[in-house]
Amino acid sequence: MNLRRVHLAALFVGLWIAVYAILEPSVGLVISLIRLEPGTRLTEALRFFLYEAPKVLLLLTIVVFAVGIIRSYFSPERTRQLLGKRSLFAGNVLASLLGIVTPFCSCSAVPLFIGFVETGIPLGVTFSFLIAAPMINEVAVVLLFGLFGWKTALLYVGTGLVISITAGYVIGKLRVERYVEDWVYSIKSQELALENKPLLDDRLQAGFTAVRDIVSKVWIYILVGIAVGAGIHGYVPENFMASIMGKSAWWAVPLSVIIGVPLYSNAAGIIPIVHALLEKGASLGTALAFMMSVIGLSLPETIILRKVLKLPLIFIFVGVVAVGIIIVGYVFNLVY
């Protein structure tokens, strides 16, 4: 075993703890050095940005590192093996759970979908995975934990799992295999290659690689999203947001989903904005529905899936997930 990488990982975790510990007092020191007047809109907006941006990036880095190690146990091939020969509901549950820790993005939708269909995984189970993977990813969970706390993060994970499991189960019961493009079924399945079991060094390297690949791609979205959120936090009137996305507007939840579906963003860009909207009076259910529709039903992913799905199944997929998101939005507006 290469102890150098183990020592590097220990150093990485130690530095992370040290920086996170001094973050809050450092922000107060910066604000005092700039000598901005306390309580003004500019001061509050700047304080929001200076604290939330590094905190979220720190949380994202450590969680991505851990998830990168976990992902070393779940290659696409092993994921297919785990999902194969499962009963419908059990397969939906397992597929949704695997979707949280396995890499997925719009560009990988087509090969993953084809691979799942080739190996005989039920279509409904496949959709549970496709819904959970982009919606409940480590970026979304980290941002929700950093900006809202662990209760909201768990709430989001729980509702996301309910939507992915239920939607996949419903799609599976509809027997819509005929709406998959014929060429997908015509591809001959290939034997899955046996994989060498990774060593600890390999798993640690997978964690560092995940940090490099994921954080390097989303950090700019995080900064932009938090900057927009800081502007909303400091300057947008509370009554304005409450009137548009508050509980009293019955149409707010479905409208937020309709607006969110065609938008293209990721968790890094949209969640900081949602955080600021909530602080300005938007209701939790409405904001949650908007966020889920943007992350879970992105237009580019839908366009790419059109290569393997016929239009009726595309509409069923979007419709079932959208209805689930709307129901979640109304439920949380009633409870909270």
Features:
16 helices; mainly alpha; 336 residues
Question: Explain this structure to me?
Answer:
The chain is mainly alpha-helical. It has one domain. The chain has 16 helices and no strands.
Compact summary:
It is flat and about 70 Å long.
Q: How far is the N terminus from the C terminus? A: 51 Å
Q: Measured on Cα atoms, how large is the radius of gyration? A: 21 Å
Low-confidence stretches: 188-195
- Number of contiguous helices: 16
The helical percent reads over 70%
Q: Note the run of SSEs as H and E.
A: HHHHHHHHHHHHHHHH
Q: State the assembly state of the protein chains.
A: single chain
Number of strands: 0
> What form results from the Cα inertia axes?
flat
What profile does the largest beta sheet have? none
How much strand content do the residues show?
A: under 5%
Number of separate structural domains: 1
Mean pLDDT: 76
The structure class reads: mainly alpha
Give the SSE map:
Elements: H1 3-34, H2 41-71, H3 76-83, H4 88-101, H5 109-118, H6 123-135, H7 138-148, H8 150-173, H9 182-186, H10 200-235, H11 238-245, H12 252-260, H13 267-279, H14 284-296, H15 299-305, H16 311-335
